[in-house]
Write a structure and sequence with these properties.
The complex is a heterodimer of chains A (about 400) and B (about 325). With about 400 residues, chain A is an alpha/beta fold. Chain A has 13 helices and 18 strands. The longest helix of chain B is centred in the C-terminal third of the chain and has 22 residues, at about 260-280. Classes of the chains: A alpha/beta (about 400), B alpha+beta (about 325). At the A-B interface, strand 1, strand 4 and helix 12 of A face helix 8, helix 9 and helix 10 of B.
Chain lengths: ~400, ~325
């Protein structure tokens, strides 16, 4: 089969590789019909995530048709169309039973590696480095899906791939980010990052009862897409002080909650962002928490900072004193995708949201390297690339 | 008289350049120090004769090796927490104790029953090749050792408190004297069982053996951690997660089964699919699911936990 393989920083290639086979009784093989490039894939593309090896197959947002099931899977039939959550969850450990699916104890074969770094290992992920299990990903023609009686979620006929595929990752991620804000009806939510996750966070915040959503980014087309859903835009490359402007916009109190949908590769124009970049280049820092700093400073007292943006290492110069003084709540983590799927499918079926709005580019799997380039540099007004193998 | 006694003492001490007192302050054993000095000196001489950066590098490395041999102190060892000087006498066989606790989603009764049948242990303890029950108290254990060898011993159960604790110890004559205890305690929040494994053993080459094992990623504590994790994965999910045999790009250095093995895997998978399709065409009931699951489950008499239908609400 053909698959997109990581071969180094800024080096991804579509190669001919062997087809996957069942390795465990609870596996299934999915034939991929649609897959996407995620913002987190850009961290891999930029060489920011350790434990990547040449030849690793990327891709954690995919859906398709079941072509083979393991001996111990009875909930799936060959031929069914499913979306597959990007987190691999066993369904029966303490965390899965608490619906904390991305914290699964049992799905990471390299758990000892992750334990060394983080103290505990979370769930394995598709196509996201050996620290998270080294599973072959879904930017390919076929994927082997472990614990297929827990993950794959059936999509009824009548809902196109373009509407359903984002249930694998970015729609639940944006939704969980908004849910973590504990939005009370009429609240104001500020969202940094108008990429695909930010876009879904905007719409999810409104679905959950927010009164106002303020989006912060520098790309016109992204801000426009968010404004189309009812958000108010701040372009930070044109604004003198984002935190001050947020204060003004919210009557001097600050937004009730803030979502950091940017993560460790934050870009900024203020002195702290420049220092972050310099430190990173000199290997003195791992992550750039520019957005997190702003979110902490902007959030109203007693508010919530919700972090779906990916962080990997350590943060420097975080205003934790300000966070303490204001009594902020922090909620974060990898998405517990399985928890949200029935709810999100309902929203799609009711017509509350059509997730295909976020697609700007559709290309074949063979053009994926170009897709990565476009997405990384936001060229051609690129916001989300989907691939058809 | 005292002066001559002292004189007689000092030449003896001076004769042995690596005295025991000096070794006591450092972290390298005497034998290893000699090895360092000789190999370091040879490397230094060789490197000095070579031209260019490679030669300078070799000379530097040789100098460092010789230096650590003379001074009895190694910075790398210090960073890794290794001290071979304690192992300077062959008679010194220090024993090693490792312990690990993990909470597992089964009842203490099930956990106890599973462990009590020692023949189950090799399914999740990677270093064990086999355990054979000899009678109610005794069993024969065969374990893998470095360089493709095996070590074996007979063990007897010394403590057996149902659903609470099992202790065992190797009988005299064992290649690797060892004893262990596994205890089961209901978890404090009522979810599952805390399984605690303690192992004490005397490796054949003393502390140095364990040190080498540590460097090559098979350190005893890591092994116990891995074994317990595999136990948890097996009883909670029915399988151990793996990626061995999955596809990868051409530049991957990962181990892949041979083409024949992969074809066989594919053929097995095809046959399983045909069997599954045939079965699916009949009415599928919960009993069928449990029957299929029980083929893969431990202990064989009970259905595995994962057959419960979980609804996502």
């Amino acid at each position: 089969m053909r698959a997109l393989c990581w071969n180094g920083k800024h080096d991804v290639r579509v190669e001919k590789v062997p087809d996957p086979v069942l390795l465990n009784p609870r596996d299934a093989i999915i034939k991929v019909t649609t897959t996407c490039i995620c913002g987190s894939d850009l961290h891999l593309y930029n060489g920011m995530i350790p434990t990547m090896e040449a030849g690793d197959i990327l891709g954690h947002e995919f859906m398709g048709e079941v072509v083979e099931v393991g001996q111990a899977v009875s909930s799936l039939k060959v031929g069914e169309r499913v979306v597959v959550p990007f987190t691999i969850s066993c369904g029966h450990c303490f965390f899965c039973s608490q619906q904390l699916y991305s914290a699964c104890d049992n799905s990471n074969p390299n758990a000892s590696m992750a334990e060394g770094l983080y103290g505990f290992s979370g769930a394995g992920l598709f196509g996201y480095s050996h620290l998270y299990g080294g599973y072959a990903g879904g930017q390919a023609e076929y994927v082997r899906v472990p614990f297929a009686d827990v993950g794959p979620f059936k999509i009824p006929d009548g809902i196109s791939d373009e509407k359903a595929v984002f249930m694998t990752d970015i729609f639940p991620t944006g939704y969980m980010a908004a849910e973590n804000c504990a939005i009370k009806p009429g609240d104001t939510v500020a969202i940094w990052g108008a990429g695909p996750v930010g876009q879904f966070a905007v719409r999810s915040a409104f679905l959950l009862g927010a009164g106002r959503v303020i989006i912060i980014d520098r790309f016109g087309e992204r801000l426009q897409m968010a404004v189309a859903a009812g958000a108010e835009a701040i372009n930070y490359s044109e604004t003198k002080d984002v935190v001050e402007q947020l204060k003004e916009l919210t009557g001097g109190r600050g937004p009730d909650s803030c979502i950091d949908a940017v993560g460790m590769e934050a870009h900024g124009v203020t002195p702290d962002a420049i220092v972050d970049r310099a430190k990173q280049a000199a290997l003195l820092a791992t992550d750039r928490p520019h957005v997190l700093r702003q979110a902490i400073q902007a959030c109203r007292k007693g508010g919530t900072v919700s972090v779906p943006g990916v962080y990997g290492g350590f943060l420097d110069k975080l205003p934790f004193g300000a966070a303490f003084a204001k009594g902020l709540t922090f909620k974060m983590g990898q998405t517990h995708v399985h928890r949200y799927l029935p709810r999100l499918l309902e929203h799609i079926q009711n017509g509350d949201i059509d997730p295909s709005f976020v697609i700007t580019h559709t290309m074949s799997l063979d053009d994926a390297p170009r897709g990565y380039e476009l997405f990384k540099h936001s060229r051609e007004r690129c916001i989300k690339v989907i691939l058809k193998p | 008289m005292a002066a001559t006694e002292r004189e007689r003492e000092t030449p003896q001490r001076a004769e042995r350049p690596f005295s025991a007192t000096k070794a006591a302050k450092g972290n390298i054993s005497v034998a290893e120090r000699w090895l360092s000095v000789v190999s370091g000196g040879a490397l230094l001489g060789y490197g000095a004769r070579q031209r260019g950066l490679a030669g300078a590098g070799l000379a530097l490395l040789g100098g460092a090796l010789a230096g650590r041999g003379v001074s009895a102190r190694c910075m790398v060892y210090k960073a890794l927490g290794i001290n071979t000087a304690e192992d300077s006498t062959p008679a010194d066989k220090a024993s090693i104790t490792v312990q690990r606790t993990l909470t597992v989603n089964i009842t203490p009764e099930l956990a106890y029953r599973f462990w009590h049948n020692f023949e189950n242990l090799p399914t999740f303890m990677q270093h064990l090749e086999s355990v054979t029950k000899l009678d109610d108290q005794r069993s024969r254990w065969v374990a893998k050792a470095p360089f493709g060898r095996t070590v074996q011993w007979e063990a007897e159960i010394t403590e057996d408190y149902p659903n609470e604790r099992i202790s065992w110890r190797s009988l005299p004559g064992a290649d690797v004297p060892n004893n262990g205890t596994v205890s089961f305690k209901p978890s404090s929040n009522g979810f599952g069982t805390e399984v605690c494994v303690e192992l004490e053993y005397t490796p054949p080459v003393g502390k140095l053996g364990a040190t080498v094992a540590k460097l090559f990623g098979e350190e005893p504590q890591q092994q116990v951690n891995g074994d317990l994790r595999r136990f948890k994965q097996l009883v909670e999910t029915g399988e151990v997660p793996t990626t061995l045999g999955q596809p990868a790009g051409s530049r991957s250095k990962r181990e892949m089964p041979s083409r024949e093995e992969r074809q066989k895997l594919s053929l097995d998978a095809y046959q399983r699919r045909m069997k599954y399709e045939a079965k699916r065409n009949k009415e599928s009931t919960l009993e069928d699911v449990v029957e299929v699951a029980s083929d893969q489950s431990f202990p064989a008499s009970d259905p595995p936990g994962w057959t419960s239908r979980r609804s996502f609400t």
